[in-house]
Write a structure and sequence with these properties.
alpha/beta, 9 helices, 20 strands, globular, FAD/NAD(P)-binding domain, eight-stranded mixed beta sheet, D-Amino Acid Oxidase, Chain A, domain 2, 405 residues
Length: 405
């Protein structure tokens, strides 16, 4: 029978980051179990955006750790992870969005985050395809960037393995076993793995593991998607990313093309109980409906991106992000089940916060206290919920719609 002090379930960004950060605190008796391959679900389908500051201060504190972790990984592995620090231009035109951006700019000054208000001439030079209204507020945040999430997962995993973590792919966890309140094992497709602590980092599938224990995680699988244009005049390699609150859209460079994401009023949600092990067998967006959300968003997006109608889109990428009603993660130990920890509910911010989440959970597991304030992310903050109910799924869809704010 296999055994380890700590078992991590899930080989995506959060699971591999927790594994890596456990080793930084001296833990080596760790096994990470992944039923398919590393980064085969949400992690590989993310846009990879990284913001040093956002509308969620609690998330920002975790995200800023990731920027430092990338540097540490590169030094440790002797490999460049190609983090593209191109910065972000945030734009706002209406009263509400302007007030929000003004507050974000003010907070950036207080917290030492590089930010400057830019004018139309600056925008034309750096984003010639973009049209901003005469009353638009435009702020450039220079520290932001993007990274290939698959490479980041691989880096976490390589560094963890070098320090003694066992990573086993092709092993599906079926259940988590307790003897009374004492953690004893996980049952898998390849037998029992005895353990003292378990970290559930299984993304949209996490509730399948916790619900049999009477623990409902307050999150719902919600569709996330984006489109990528063919190489052309709309984009060049190092142009800044953009986030336009009123258009509900964002862009970033992508292989001499442009990646475009848009918010939906109500993103499709899914019952976690029907998700297959392999998402290649599951339809998130029905064939022929890849353009529906883009068509719906066209009136508001084309105001700042006039070339939208003539752009040649080559790729459509869709996946599932686990959203909570407040857009915050689910992080911490389950009070009713000592030894059971959760790192879930990425809310579309798993890439940029992965380093901080790994550090936060590793500290909690090893030292009994996290180096970060996890109160905003408590698993029980909504009380008892039914994550499969229509009402709860609607709350999570609304949180997805607010992401660009």
């Amino acid at each position: 029978m296999n055994k380890a002090a700590i078992v991590i379930i899930g080989g995506g960004l959060l699971g591999t980051s927790v594994a890596y950060h456990l080793t930084r605190r001296g833990a080596c008796d760790v096994i990470l179990l992944e039923r398919l391959g590393l980064a085969t679900a949400a992690s590989s389908q993310a846009a990879g955006l990284m913001f040093a500051i956002s509308s969620k201060p609690a998330v920002d504190r975790l995200s800023r750790v990731t920027f430092k972790v990338i540097d540490a990984l590169e030094e440790q592995l002797g490999d460049h992870l190609d983090f593209h620090r191109v910065g972000t231009v945030r734009l706002a035109e209406t009263g509400k969005s302007r007030s929000t951006l003004e507050a974000l700019y003010a907070r950036s000054q207080q917290e030492g985050i590089s930010a400057e208000i830019v004018n139309e001439a600056w925008l034309f030079e750096n984003l010639p395809w973009l049209t901003a209204g005469s009353d638009a507020l435009s702020v450039f945040f220079a520290d932001d960037g993007y990274i290939d999430p698959y490479r980041l997962v691989a880096a976490y995993a390589r560094a963890a393995k070098r320090s003694g973590v066992r990573i086993e792919t092709g092993v599906a966890v079926k259940s988590i076993r307790f003897d009374g309140k004492r953690m004893v094992a996980v049952q898998t497709s390849k037998g029992m793995f005895q353990c003292e602590k378990v970290v559930v980092a299984a993304g949209a599938w996490s509730n399948n593991l916790t619900m049999p224990l009477g623990i409902s995680l307050p999150m719902t699988p919600v569709r996330s998607h984006f489109w990528i244009t063919a190489p052309g005049p709309l984009s060049y390699k190092n142009q800044p990313m953009t986030v336009h609150a009123d258009a509900g859209a964002y862009t970033r460079p992508e292989v001499n093309g442009m990646l475009l994401g848009v918010q939906e009023a109500f993103s499709p949600t899914f019952d976690y109980r029907i998700l297959p092990d392999d998402m290649d067998t599951f339809t998130i967006t029905e064939n022929g409906h890849e353009w529906d959300a883009l068509i719906e968003a066209e009136p508001r997006v084309s105001r700042f991106f006039p070339g939208l109608n003539s752009a040649r889109f080559e790729s459509y990428v869709t996946g599932l992000s686990a959203y909570t009603p407040d857009g915050h993660f689910i992080l911490g130990e389950i009070d009713e089940r000592p030894g059971l920890y959760v790192a879930a509910g990425c809310c579309g911010s798993g890439v940029m916060s992965s380093g901080g989440i790994g550090d936060a959970l590793a500290g909690l597991i090893i030292e009994g206290e996290s180096p970060h304030n996890l109160m905003p992310f408590r698993p029980d903050r909504f009380g008892i919920v039914d994550p499969a109910s229509t009402e709860f799924q609607m709350l999570c869809a609304k949180a997805r719609a607010r992401k660009a704010e």
